[in-house]
Design goal:
- The longest helix is centred in the C-terminal third of the chain and has 20 residues, at 251-270.
- Helix 3 (126-139) crosses helix 4.
- Strands 3, 5, 6, 7, 8, 15 and 16 form a 7-stranded mixed beta sheet that branches. The protein has a 6-stranded parallel beta sheet with strand order 11-10-9-12-13-14, with helices on both faces.
- It has 11 helices and 16 strands.
- The chain has 2 domains: 2-125 and 301-331, Alpha-Beta Complex (Quinone Oxidoreductase, Chain A, domain 1), CATH 3.90.180; 128-277, 3-Layer(aba) Sandwich (Rossmann fold), CATH 3.40.50.720.
- It is globular.
- The two termini are 14 Å apart.
- Helix 5 links the parallel strand 10 and strand 11.
- It has 333 residues and is an alpha/beta fold.
- Helix content is 32%, strand content 26%.
- This is Alcohol dehydrogenase.
Amino acid sequence: MKAFIINKYSNKEALQLADVPVPTVNDNDVLIEVYAAGLNLLDSKIKSGEFKTILPYQFPLILGHDVAGVVTQVGKNVKIFQTGDEVYSRPSDGRIGTLAEFISVNEKDVAFKPKNISMEAAASIPLVALTAWQVFVEKADLQKEQKVFIQAGSGGVGTIAIQLAKHLGATIATTASTQSFQMLKELGADLIIDYKTQDFETVLKDYDLVLNSQDTRTLEKSLNILRQGGKAISISGPPTPEFATEKKLPWFIKLILSFLSRGIRRKSKNLNVDYSFLFMRANGSQLQEITKLIESGIIKPVVDKVFSFDQSNDALKYVESGRAKGKIVVRLK
């Protein structure tokens, strides 16, 4: 099969188009013919080696964490899916590789594709929607009338997070450029701050929750807008020792993460707020709940551009530019 691969960690080297074997289908796996693949900044960070200490991959490596397609083969223990089913997934860490004609995914990480959207729209959903779900529903237990600050509202995570938080009954503030204001109002944002001319730290106060997706400086400022007992959940770091324990990482990695996060943990303790790091994980049952929200019209995919398979390098560069409004998708079929 055709796939885009990397042979080493690199910021500069392009993805290489190669012929590679079709993945093995284990007893609990489904083989998905890839119709569309979503790209995320996580793909770029893995390509550059930013996560190699906590996510060590072997080469050649196929990137891609979002897939929508059709099941073409099932393992002998698979109960839910059968050949011909239209599905989507965020494959688990260690088994990524959606920039390819086929991918084998454990059944527990797969969900039925929403019937009311295209393959390209479906491929934009899994990683960002699971991130928002795990932040708001699982980790923060977001309640009606709570106030949440979602950074970078027009990004891939932001556009879905705003819709989910609105569905949960929260009041939502976000940051964006003025060109995105109308779109974000339509998605459900209550207060939109122009990050070019305003400082959110001077506008927001006594918030219950911050979803941080930006740099450490922005995270530090975000702690100041929380009420006492409020929560800051970061999807961009720094990772914490608790994360190392959760992932069963070696003791020396836990020590490194303790050092890297000590400043933000100290500041959050001094302010009497809670700081935690979330590295989202694959979860087919949660994705099936998201399917219901999409089919009922509560969540709508936001896709900026769709690239052809042979334009995968251009697609990744566009993701890295930070200009995307919503998600970037690569079409294979």
